[in-house]
Specification:
This protein is an alpha/beta fold. The chain has 10 helices and 20 strands. The strands form 3 sheets. An 8-stranded parallel beta barrel has the order 1-2-3-4-5-6-7-9, surrounded by 5 helices. Strands 15-14-20-11-12-19-16-17 form an 8-stranded antiparallel beta sheet.
């Protein structure tokens, strides 16, 4: 393929997520514990930002800091502190759309990527942000592929698009529903996702309208793995994977599949048979069903997951316990089974801010005695294949 291969940008929330995608992504985007549209992603703070950025760069990746919430007057001093810390840490770019963050980033000499929150939908808007100091715009998710091609023909700005992950039912995430219903603003990173709830629809006469499904506002996840060559042909500079709140296992699979697809396009081996295999792998991690979003036109009913709950994957993770201690010499962990039991042969994941481990249960001990299974409420010794840490969570992986 003659067109340059786009940069693959993966969302991460901590060192564990970074560790599973560092061999697949070219860059990662993340946030600290403020000014993030993923307010629950709090593992990275001003105190450890320097160390995290160094870890990203030492892994051969670029580090992009998202500071893309609405900024209020009382936020301005903290915005200055965050952007100055980003400059000191050596982040490769700040992702923003609020002019207060834009101005401060330019003042600090930082590269600037304009967030999809800005809803950039034409080339003149892209050029406008370029004049303000931005080098890249992350385009609106509501654009068709043909509209993206038109923007590409009229600007030299770097263009980034989302290729995989959750879709918001509101334009560029500008949703009022969570704030209106529960007082928690999605535009400040605290969305409760009421669009994923079950709803009923009533007519003007008070009668219940019969519909095939109850999740009336829940959009399917975006998946463009079958259309990677078309996106490359559009002249895009970067592909973004949504998922800063997803578990490391999710990001491991998604980043690997898109890396393999991009590499296949580079060497000319990409075909639809391979794309279907990647899509099957993507369907095994958390998803709400897949669609192509707006790329090929405004989505109709097939863009909504009305009959699904929050997870359409056939593989589920069930929380079973928490690590109490790790014993290096014994390659074992003490685990308290708080939510469920474990048995020899179970597939498990152990996960924490700095831990991600997939393995089978090979050995369980209660006290000094080996057992084949242990139930909820028991403390067990678990043989582990790598280091784990106190307070890491243990999940049993099941196919349903």
């Amino acid at each position: 393929m003659s067109d340059p291969i786009p940069e693959l940008v993966a969302g991460v929330r901590n060192p564990a997520t970074l560790s599973v995608c560092k061999d697949h992504a070219d860059a990662v985007y993340f946030s600290i514990d403020r000014f993030s549209l993923r307010a629950r992603a709090r593992d990275i703070t001003l105190d450890n930002l320097d160390a995290f950025v160094k870890q990203v760069n030492d892994s051969g990746l670029k580090a992009y800091l998202a500071a893309n919430t609405v900024i209020y007057p009382e936020d301005l001093p903290a915005v200055d502190a965050v952007v100055e810390a980003a400059a000191s840490a050596g982040v490769d770019a700040v992702i923003a759309w609020d002019p207060a963050v834009i101005n401060k980033s330019v003042e600090c000499g930082l590269d600037l990527h304009i967030s999809t929150q800005a809803n950039v939908s034409n080339w003149q808007t892209a050029e406008f942000y370029g004049k303000l100091g931005a080098s890249r715009v992350i385009l609106s998710r509501e654009l068709t592929l043909e509209q993206i091609k038109d923007i590409r023909q009229h600007t030299d700005m770097e263009l980034e698009v989302f290729v995989h992950g959750a879709m918001c039912q509101a334009i560029s995430g500008r949703c009022y529903l969570s704030a209106y219903l529960l007082g928690r603003s999605g535009n400040c990173g605290d969305c409760t996702q009421p669009c994923r709830w079950q709803w009923t629809l009533h007519g003007e006469d008070g009668g219940l309208v019969e519909l095939a499904g109850k999740h009336l506002l829940s959009a399917r996840d975006l998946c463009m793995i079958e259309h990677v060559p078309e996106l490359i042909d559009a002249g895009l500079d970067a592909f973004k994977i949504e998922g800063r709140l997803r578990n490391p296992g999710y990001m491991a699979v998604v980043s690997r599949c898109y890396r393999e697809a991009l590499d296949a396009c580079r060497n000319g081996s990409y075909d639809q048979g391979m794309a279907q295999q990647w899509k099957e792998q993507l369907a095994k991690v958390y998803n709400r069903g897949f669609s192509t979003g707006f790329y090929f036109g405004v989505p109709g009913p097939d863009g909504l997951a009305v009959e699904k709950d929050m997870n359409a994957s056939s593989v589920r993770r069930q929380a079973v316990g928490v690590v109490q201690n790790y014993f290096l010499k014994q390659d074992a962990a003490a685990v308290r089974l708080l939510e469920g039991g474990l048995a020899v042969g179970d597939s498990i994941v152990i996960e924490g801010a700095s831990t991600y481990l997939e393995q089978e249960v090979e050995s369980l001990m209660i006290g000094r005695d080996p057992v084949q299974e242990a139930g909820k409420g028991q403390d067990v010794g678990l043989a582990v294949a790598a280091r784990v840490r106190k307070n890491d969570r243990v999940f049993r992986v099941e196919r349903i």
